[in-house]
Design a protein that fits this description.
324 residues, 12 helices
Length: 324
């Protein structure tokens, strides 16, 4: 049986070098935007429209056919984002890179990551897609497996994972544009009064809120939240508490996107979370995240996160274990 494009790509991954220069955002080859059309109904005449990401997509795979398929899918998903959220901005996107091997792409972009103070070693321990700002603009790196799930899923769970991951990163592009390029120029300094985890909580909330269709499952987010809460109970540390706060915000974003409104995104099975007025404190944070989101959409300006910092601090103060 002839191996599929996906299988042949997996074989190619094994032969990749540790630092593939073709995956560096500064030098990687981008694909020309596809010719796209849209229509308002089955009998309507299709009309052309501009690919939202222009020529910013780079696909580090061997087959030209597969490269075109992946690049077109990304442009279509970006188009879907703009149909749902026409206020989204992708103008500061520098490169959207799909890499057969994520670690290789991270190493190839080490100079850009290190220029903004991000550790290459930390990124090498992770497997998910991610976005980061730099002087040239925003860079998104998506593992090939994510696009496989979006293009050729084995089941519905894979399909949802692939689609929402791409939408998640595109939502990051918008929110990071507002924060790091307020006047069109790169401004990497964050307010000293805001924790890094508070900034991350805001961005994960925003991205999850704008990357899911109603009806998509939230099982993964709930599982990650409960796992993070278990870590808080068993071995609390500043890093573990930070991670838990981010998971709370992220899960609220997913649940509100799924039409659950102000439903509590909490590890409900853990009675300790519902003690010491913890839930009331978290409801304040939920409301604040929703308000900041509406404000950012209306004004096109990154929100002031100092008020969120104080509100999340109230939740942290009520957590079991040492005061962190």
């Amino acid at each position: 049986m002839t191996p599929s494009l996906w299988q042949r790509t997996k074989v190619r991954i094994q032969g990749m070098t540790a630092r593939d220069p073709s995956l560096c955002a500064l030098t990687c080859k981008t694909l020309p935007p596809p010719a796209l059309t849209m229509s308002s109904g089955a009998r309507a005449t299709p009309v052309p429209f501009v690919a939202p990401l222009q020529g910013c997509v780079s696909v580090g795979l061997g087959s030209p056919v597969l490269q075109e398929q992946v690049a077109t899918q990304i442009q279509l998903l970006a188009s879907a984002q703009l149909i749902r959220h026409p206020w989204m901005r992708f103008d500061k996107l520098f490169r959207f890179i799909v890499a057969a091997d994520r670690a290789t792409a991270v190493r190839a972009n080490a100079v850009l990551l290190e220029s903004i103070g991000q550790s290459v070693a930390i990124h090498l321990t992770k497997t998910s897609a991610f976005a980061f700002p730099c002087e040239q603009g925003l860079v998104v790196i998506v593992p090939f497996e994510v696009m496989r799930c979006a293009l050729a899923p084995d089941n519905e769970m894979e399909r949802q994972y692939g689609l929402t991951t791409v939408w998640h990163e595109l939502a990051h592009v918008h929110a990071l544009t507002l924060q790091y390029y307020p006047d069109g120029l790169f401004q990497p300094i964050l307010p000293k009064a805001v924790r890094g985890s508070t900034n991350q909580a805001w961005h994960e909330f925003f991205a999850d809120k704008h990357s899911h269709w109603q009806g998509f499952v939230a099982d993964l987010e709930v599982h990650l939240l409960r796992s993070a809460w278990h870590d808080v109970l068993t071995s609390p540390s500043e890093a573990i508490v930070d991670h838990f706060m981010v998971r709370l915000a992220s899960t609220h974003g997913r649940m509100s996107a799924n039409g659950f409104g102000s439903a509590m995104a909490t590890p409900r099975t853990c009675a300790a979370f519902e003690s010491n007025d913890m839930v009331d404190r978290w409801r304040v944070c939920q409301s604040m995240l929703d308000d900041l989101c509406a404000q950012a959409i209306q004004t096109g300006i990154a929100p002031d996160l100092t008020v969120l910092e104080a509100s999340l601090g109230n939740v942290r103060a009520a957590l079991p274990g040492p005061n962190l």
